[in-house]
Amino acid sequence: MDRRPNFLVALALLVLSCVGAVKGESSAGCGKTPTITGKQYSMTNRPYRLVFTWHQLGGSAQKIVDGKDTSRGGALPYYGLNAIANNSAIFVVPQGLNAGWGNQGGEDVTFFDQLAKTVAADVCVDTRLRFSTGFSYGGAMSYALACARPKDIRAVAVISGSQLSGCTGGNDPVAYYGQHGTSDSVLNVSRGRQLRDRFVRNNGCTAVSETQPSGGRSVKTVYQGCNPGYPVTWKDGSVIFAPKNTWDFFTQFS
Which of 38-47, 106-115, 208-217 has the lowest average pLDDT? Predict the structure, then answer.
């Protein structure tokens, strides 16, 4: 099935790239009408983190940008991450076929491949610092990428996810943050724990006995013994999406 490119990109800063011409070679601007005028410009040439934010079932890219998905996990624009990123990341917000991420025949993973290539060709990103997050179906898509594209994704944050988008491969380590509400009546917390356990194994972490939250509180588990560079953190309880947890997990990598 042909997929028409449909995604939104939020640039942390307007990036103006300039490549000096080598003697005897013509630059890309030769033969074009100049758009740079006689005024002061600022230029930033450092690469940015790239964060893919996948919407839930029935959501949309625009709702993630606007913060209009008011159910759990989607009330803040960009899942609340853009507000605390301090202009250090570029956010890509894809739009799913049928408002979801069924990933039939791997089509949504292929879509990710095309998006990553398109963005990297046009803006300054650090290809070693690509991240993926999402709520519910968006979490499932992030999990699918951790399985299928472990070399292309530095870390994922799977929020109230389940194996809805498949898991091709799934044998390599990826830094993994997971969070799930224990009272989730749509996707039971046990389904989120199953996703987590795969990367506890893949990342060489030491398995621990499940700590059950009580009294409306949440429990955070930072797994020990994980392979260097591949941590696993899990948080469950009656909690909503926590931007700071995700951002702190992502920004430990540089």
Answer: 38-47
Beta strands in the chain (DSSP E): 7-10, 48-54, 89-94, 125-135, 155-159, 175-180, 218-222, 232-237
245-246-251-253 Cα dihedral, nearest 10 degrees: 110
Distance of CA 91 to the CA centre of its chain: 8
For residue 223, which amino acid is it?
Answer: Y
Residue 160 CA neighbour count, 13 Å, CB half? 25
Q: What is the structure's pLDDT at 76?
A: 86
Supply 215's token pair: 């009294």
Q: Which domains does the chain have, with CATH numbers?
A: 45-250 (3.40.50.1820)
Q: Is the dihedral of CA 67, 179, 54, 191 positive or negative?
A: negative
How deeply is 50 buried, as exposed, middle or buried, from its count of CB atoms within 10 A (0-12, 13-18, 19+)? buried
As a whole number of angstroms, the distance between CA 158 and CA 31 comes to 48
Q: How far does Cα 60 stand from its chain's mean position?
A: 15
Cα 234 → chain centroid: 17
The answer to whether the beta carbons of residues 158 and 195 sit under 8 Å apart is yes
Per-residue pLDDT tens for 203-226? 999 998 877 777 667 889 999 999
* pLDDT tens-digit map of 160-200: 999 999 999 999 999 999 999 888 888 988 999 999 999 99
